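This section describes the prediction task in plain terms. A model, or a person checking by hand, is given the sequence of a single protein chain and must write out its three-dimensional structure as a string of tokens. No templates, partner chains or ligands are provided. The sample shown here is typical of the held-out split.
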Amino acid sequence: MLPFAVALLCGLCLTTSASTLPDLDIPEPISAADAAAIALRNNPQLRADLAAIGFAEADLRDARLFLRNPRLDLLVPIGAKPFELIFNFPIEVFVQRPRRIALSQAALDQLAKSLLQNGLNAARDARLAHADLVLAEERRKWSLQASQLRDRIAQLTQARLRVGDIGELDTIAARADAGAAREQLTRAEHDVTLARQRLRFALGLPMAGPEPLTPAAAPPALAPPGELPRLLETAMSARPDLRAAELAIGTATLRAKWEKTRFYWLSAQLAAKEVSPNGVLGGPGLSAEIPIFNRNQGLIARATAEIESASRQYLALKQRAAFEVADALRQMLQAQDALRRLREDVLPPLARGAALAEDQYRKGDVSYLFVLEQTRGLLDANARILDAEAAIRRAEAQLERSTGSR
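The expected answer:
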């Protein structure tokens, strides 16, 4: 069962090169799908969760034991007491064994489904960390361009000051703006380092490893993800945690049926007793527990309560799954709409205005403050575009996890 569960978890890998999984080579650059595949193979917490399946396998192996050890009672002759031997062999195991096996197998299947959900969560976390690293890298690139632009404006301001076109107040503002841009670039570089460490943690890689982990920024998905009813239908049929919750109800039902039969203890006996120095009498018999006071009422009540608890947990999980799908879909649609509007309606006029303002500033037709306002609007719009693209990637990862499929 363990190799089967590993194969299922590796099957959650969305798209990956053949070299990624067998020897854990880190591709350069690394895509979001590669990150998900590596996390499924190498995430320490996921591997720790997967190791828990050994407990369920051990319970199933114990349930499959056909016979329990017999018991031998030996009464030593002392004084007038004769020698006596009693051989007890439990026979209720023939009735209890099929129920024990069915219960242990159901628990193993439930755990396997739960581990599949853990795999989906690990893949989602890796994709989110990858999206954050892509965003940090893009922000660093744009911060570098913004810093270079502000430095050029500061140089132009100094040149105009030398020829007497502007006063020193304008140069102070230009130098301060250039310094602020350099500070933003430094902060963006630190953000890249932090995002790369988060991705390493999600992939189960050492913090000081040799892999540079350069992210491959795929274009954000702009196609409609689908209608909510269809996505909900997919989630209800594909999510492993819902299947595990359904299996939990079946497991609790099997346990309740089994507990109702565990109120008796029965064993076959073979007794031998010395009746004279040269004679021994023996014969078969039965030994049984009389269920007068204890008919396993406590464990039966507990098993019944487990059925109700599992049923309510399943209903709560269905509601949560529906919310997660709807929330991820709404976030993705919102981010797609924001990106579309920014690219089509906001960015073109701002880029044109910034170019015209810089050209007019070189000619001396406008002040530096006018150029500053135009460039600031362009920088803000580009930052919002980067945020919208990252929001789409995050929402896509959340939607895949919440529906249990791509």
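For orientation: The radius of gyration is 35 Å.
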